[in-house]
TrEMBL record:
GO CC annotations on file: cytosol
Keyword list, A-Z: Kinase, Transferase
Name of the protein: PfkB family carbohydrate kinase
Originating species: Paenibacillus prosopidis
Any Pfam family hit: PfkB
Domain Carbohydrate kinase PfkB: 5-75
Length: 95
């Protein structure tokens, strides 16, 4: 059985890794400007974390952060993404 992630919008996300352990990731506080692109950003961030070798739990944190930054932008992407990735403590600790 594979892993699964489901987003719950403003209520966060749940994930089910292959270990059958259930996890929940709440959203981080953000100022909503436009939610367009948030889902794509979430899954892009999550996949980025998995490609970097993170656990599903840690990868979902990546996705949650990237989606939050996208929500704070008037565009459907976060134009400041490279800067935010460099400034964020979680991402600084990634290999």
């Amino acid at each position: 059985m594979g892993s699964m992630v489901a987003t719950l919008g403003e209520k966060g996300a749940v994930y089910y890794p292959q270990t059958k352990e259930v996890g929940y990731q709440p959203v981080f506080p953000v100022k909503l400007v436009d939610s367009s692109g948030a889902g794509d950003a979430f899954f892009s961030g999550t996949v980025m974390g998995l490609v970097k070798g993170l656990s599903l739990k840690e990868a979902v944190i990546c996705g949650t952060k990237v989606a939050g930054w996208t929500i704070e932008s008037a565009e459907n992407i976060c134009p400041e993404l490279p800067i935010r990735l460099k400034q964020d403590e979680f991402f600084k600790n990634m290999k």
